[in-house]
Specification:
Layout lengths: L1 H17 L3 H4 L3 E2 L6 H6 L17 E3 L4 H13 L3 E5 L16 E5 L6 E4 L4 E5 L4 H11 L3 E2 L10 H6 L7 H4 L6 E7 L5 E2 L1 H11 L10 E8 L1 E2 L4 E9 L4 H11 L7 E11 L6 E11 L3 H11 L10 E4 L1 H9 L20 E9 L5 H11 L7 E7 L3 H4 L15 E9 L4 H18 L30 H12 L2 H12 L19
Parallel strand pairs: 2-4, 3-4
Antiparallel strand pairs: 1-2, 5-6, 6-10, 7-11, 8-9, 8-10, 12-14, 12-15, 13-14, 13-17, 16-18, 17-18
Helix pairs in contact: 1-4
The structure holds dihydroflavine-adenine dinucleotide.
The site of dihydroflavine-adenine dinucleotide (FDA) has 33 residues, from β3, α6 and β10.
């Protein structure tokens, strides 16, 4: 304990010494002695698994207002052997932006969240601490026919989200958020502030999908905005097993990845009580964004997916920005201002995993999943099936580190939630989702069994947080997230951070740190 206290005192002295304006930096620092320390720490934490008293806590939280303060934080953390965890939106599934088992400081980007939209060039600069909801709001404020293809939940931070890929309901038309990044500003391990030109194309490639936390502190992104029609259409149709859900899902697998790219229909699957007899059933909600009006959507659905029985009454026309509220679960008529609020919408205990599907899962395979959902832990479990195809098929696997392109029909996100605190309940739910994951093995991608880094899952492999990590050890998780791009990520890391200062349980290791 005393060693930590010393480190923390020395770190604070170093910060005041190396900050251009030392009076102001003291206002950005929270230590366990501050009354607001816990509320600042917990503010953006999404996963309650990492809020227990036994979760390792940072010695210091720093919330900088400008880049010179970030340079001082990097310098002093290096000098005093403290690890840095950079946090933007705090939505990391495994808490890597705010938990570490070695002495560490949280660099919280919350105060660096300005957004400048240029309607003429159809571009925007967005600082890492902003949320995607704030970005969407500022774009729509400028021009209702511009949008951006990022995630669904408005409180996700652009710092982590874009650096891991970032997808939402426009992915079949425009690809990932990271596919639409055209410049970035980053502070490297030497405290230098670099943009695309000065960082070079290798590092710029790596931070668009390779996970920012391995390479430096990303200050801001410049993105290309995309065109959205003035009217889009949304619908959600829920079908239970009695209403032919299994066959509809089976059919969907064949057709959803081939729909015209303006049409995105995902499926949310969970267990519910049947309204007919009160018994458990599986409910599949077909949840869709169509980039156009109802009059075009209905004939399209009649041609491609008549079995779903979509009618005009199921559909609602709205603006693209209103559809953001719809998919985030807000009621109709809610003010767009809710997008500016970064308080997480829900907080639960959860564990998630991801899978990619290359061949349709047969009906008996789906029925085996339903049986698992009928177990106790299936009560609050969910599977989200997101179709690929369209633009995702056109982008090369090596264009950015995110490699899951042509050949993938859809991605699955497996989730299990619970509401009670405690190790026993948590282990029970985690072991349930691990069993579900084992059950899925014959039906999903193999060699590697691919995974999405933004759905972080430490079960797929980890580094040694306290020592060196071999290539063999890191490639266990690295190949799953990045396939062949993993090797190039290691080369970039070796060039920009050979001493492996920016590290976590799933950061890219440099060659020099290999055994
Ligand atoms: P957080 O701040 O926790 O950071 C995540 C990782 O990035 C950490 O390793 C962190 O150190 C690093 N990092 C953060 N900021 C950095 C910076 N400025 N410089 C360098 N490294 C930085 N995904 C998706 O693709 N589509 C979706 O629709 C959703 N929806 C969704 C909903 C909910 C409720 C959750 C909890 C998560 C999602 N996600 C998602 C997953 C999301 O994309 C993923 O968790 C992102 O990494 C979150 O980014 P944050 O900045 O919020 O996370």
């Amino acid at each position: 304990l005393s060693a930590s206290a010393d480190t923390h005192e020395e770190f604070l002295q170093c910060l005041s010494l190396h900050s251009p304006n030392s009076t102001s930096i003291s206002k950005l620092i929270y230590t366990p002695n501050n009354t607001s320390y816990l509320s600042v720490l917990n503010f953006s934490i999404q996963n309650l698994r990492f809020t227990s008293p036994s979760t390792p806590k940072p010695l210091v939280i720093v919330t900088p207002f400008d880049e010179s303060q970030i340079q001082a934080i990097i310098y002093c953390s290096k000098y005093h052997g403290m690890q840095i965890r950079v946090r933007s939106g705090g939505h990391d599934y495994e808490g890597l932006s705010y938990v570490s088992d070695v002495p560490f400081v949280i660099l919280d980007m919350i105060n660096l969240s300005s957004i400048t939209v240029d309607g003429e060039s159809k571009t925007a600069w967005v600082e890492s601490g902003a949320t995607i909801g704030q970005l969407y709001y500022r774009i729509a404020e400028k021009n209702k026919t511009l949008g951006f293809p990022a995630g669904v939940c408005p409180t996700v931070g652009v710092g982590g989200h874009f650096s891991g890929g970032g997808y939402g309901l426009m992915l079949r038309k425009y690809g990932l958020a990271a596919d639409n990044v055209i410049d970035a500003r980053i502070v490297d391990v030497n405290g230098q502030v670099l943009d695309r030109k000065s960082m070079g194309e290798d590092l710029f490639w790596a931070i668009r999908g390779g996970g920012g936390a391995s390479f430096g502190v990303i200050l801001a992104w410049k993105v290309n905005l995309v065109t959205v029609p003035s009217t889009v259409t949304v619908f959600t149709i829920a079908k239970t097993l009695d209403q032919n859900a299994t066959n509809l899902i089976y059919k969907w697998q064949h057709i959803a990845p081939k729909f015209p790219e303006d049409l995105f229909i995902r499926i949310l699957i969970r267990r519910v009580n049947s309204s007919e007899n009160g018994k458990w059933t599986i409910q599949a909600s077909f949840n869709s964004l169509y980039l156009g009006g109802i009059s075009n959507l209905i004939p399209l659905m009649q041609e491609h997916f008549p079995e779903l029985g979509l009618t005009e009454e199921d559909c609602t026309e709205m603006s693209w920005i209103e559809s953001i509220l719809y998919f985030a679960g807000f009621s109709t008529g809610e003010s767009l201002d809710v997008l500016l609020d970064r308080t997480p919408l829900t907080r639960q205990y959860f564990k998630a995993k991801s899978d990619y599907v290359k061949k349709p899962i047969p009906v008996f395979g789906l029925e085996g999943i339903w049986r698992m959902f009928y177990e106790d832990e299936g009560e609050l479990a969910e599977m989200i099936l997101s179709p690929y195809g369209g633009k995702m098929d056109e982008i090369a696997e090596s264009a950015i580190p995110f490699p899951h392109r042509k050949g993938n029909l859809y991605k699955i996100q497996h989730l299990v939630y619970w509401n009670e605190e405690g190790e026993e309940v948590s282990q029970r739910h985690i072991s349930w989702i691990r069993r579900l994951y084992s059950y899925m093995a014959p039906y999903v991608s193999r060699f590697p069994r691919a995974a999405y880094i933004n759905y972080r899952d430490l079960d797929v492999g980890v580094n040694n947080n306290k020592g060196n990590t071999s290539y063999a050890q890191a490639s266990i998780w690295g190949i799953k997230y990045f396939k062949n791009n993993f090797n190039r990520l290691v080369q970039v890391k070796t060039k920009v951070d050979p001493g492996n200062f920016f590290r976590n349980e799933q950061s890219i290791p440099p060659f020099s740190a290999w055994w």
